[in-house]
Amino acid sequence: GPAHLFRLAGKCFSFVESTYKYEFCPFHNVTQHEQTFRWNAYSGILGIWHEWEIENNTFVGMWMREGDSCETKSRQTKVHLVCGKSNKLAYVSEPSTCVYSLTFETPLVCHPHSLLVYPTLTEALQRKWDEAEQLLYDELITDQGYKKILKEIFEEAGLLKATEEKEVENKKISLEFETVEKCNKEYKQLSKEIKKLQDLLSQHGIAYKGISGE
């Protein structure tokens, strides 16, 4: 992300609301501590630094994910960065169950270009973005295709975490072979795996009806 924000790393900022104290440590985590004398006062992690949220070439927020478990999911927090006179945690809310929203004020984002994504990229990734812009302008790719390229650029830059869907997508792609040799190699590998699975089924006395070469 933006290099000038790295000076926030290693620092923590707190905000107290009713009986809860929230603490935001940029590029690290967000925690919540119940300020009561109850024997089981809650103290936990609302999210660990994960990735940026990017819109229109701008870093609009920091996602802290994989916090403490909450019912069937993990707690997560989106931190909005807004211009302010000093570094401080200004506002906390919980827009939906176990998803928190923090507003962090800092003079580091007051310059109109302070949160632009493009300048933080390497030259190679900037070139890739320029090419995508040209392809979109020439109508050689759709808006959806353009967004997909941008997502790949941001993932490559480490600004976004690659999603599991991407892994599934890669597996699908790997089934299209560039050469016959590669296809044969993959076919032999799959045949071995099928043989193993057939043996496993017969070991457990499960009938297997399959057409050879299927």
UniProtKB/TrEMBL annotation:
One Pfam family recorded for the sequence: PRKCSH
UniProt entry tagged with the keyword Signal: yes
Gene3D superfamilies noted in UniProt: Mannose-6-phosphate receptor binding domain
Matching InterPro entries: DMAP1-bd (IPR010506), Gtb1-like (IPR039794), Man6P_isomerase_rcpt-bd_dom_sf (IPR009011), MRH_dom (IPR044865), OS9-like_dom (IPR012913)
Principal place of residence: Golgi
Coiled-coil ranges (or none): 180-207
SUPFAM superfamilies registered for this protein in UniProt: Mannose 6-phosphate receptor domain
GO molecular function annotations of the record: transferase activity
GO CC entries: extracellular region; Golgi apparatus
Keyword Disulfide bond part of the UniProt annotation: yes
Transmembrane segments: none
Domain MRH: 10-112
Domain DMAP1-binding: 117-214
Subunit composition and interactions: Homodimer; disulfide-linked. Hexamer of two alpha (GNPTAB), two beta (GNPTAB) and two gamma (GNPTG) subunits; disulfide-linked. The alpha and/or the beta subunits of the enzyme constitute the catalytic subunits.
Role description: Non-catalytic subunit of the N-acetylglucosamine-1-phosphotransferase complex, an enzyme that catalyzes the formation of mannose 6-phosphate (M6P) markers on high mannose type oligosaccharides in the Golgi apparatus. Binds and presents the high mannose glycans of the acceptor to the catalytic alpha and beta subunits (GNPTAB). Enhances the rate of N-acetylglucosamine-1-phosphate transfer to the oligosaccharides of acid hydrolase acceptors.
Name of the protein in its database record: N-acetylglucosamine-1-phosphotransferase subunit gamma
Organism: Chroicocephalus maculipennis
Gene: Gnptg
